[in-house]
């Protein structure tokens, strides 16, 4: 089914995705490329009816959604990954496609966005993704090795709300525009910044960063 979807994406847009992934040093196999293009086609189609994202054009979706999500692939090890505030499933769906050994849970309280997640999982044949419609405060699960978010509120809220969901020795991955020193200064005493990494998203001029955080062990 993803093959049919992928064929609806214009060649120029597919070439933009190929070039961006190559710039990120990511080499998807044919099935992964097909699924990424299928996800793009589904997102574009659903967005016209359900307003899932403010990003409208296929070109912009390639940059701001697919490549932005893929830019953190090297820092995602899982094996169990929780994507909090996943919206239409980003970055979780992209990461699950590119790293099929991951076990990804998508968490969002917005019904129409989780319906899209479920449809994408079904149409793309993804067996390693579990969409969940629930507020993070009410979510109960076996703790995860990594918890990621691309569009959550403040770092303080992200960590405070998901602390019970992070396994011992686990990591928080916070995708941010500019990482403000004020936010970092407000981190709980028991949490440390492990790495602040600038992300070079092909085609994206705005600043992007990935903050990796963990519980202090000292």
Keywords:
single chain, 218 residues, alpha/beta, seven-stranded mixed sheet, 7 strands, 39% helix, globular
- Count of alpha/pi helices: 8
> Would you tell me the overall average pLDDT?
94
Share of residues in helices: 25-40%
What fraction of residues sit in β-strands? 15-25%
Question: How much is the radius of gyration in Å?
Answer: 17 Å
Q: Can you count the beta strands?
A: 7
Sheet having the most strands = 7 strands, mixed
The stretches of 5 or more residues where confidence is low (pLDDT under 50) are none
Task: Label the structural class.
Answer: alpha/beta
Principal-axes shape call: globular
Kindly, what is the distance between the CA atoms of the first and last residues, rounded to a whole number of angstroms? Answer: 51 Å
Identify the strand order in the major beta sheet: 3-2-1-4-5-7-6
Elements, N to C (H/E): HHHHEHEHEEHEHEE
Oligomer: single chain
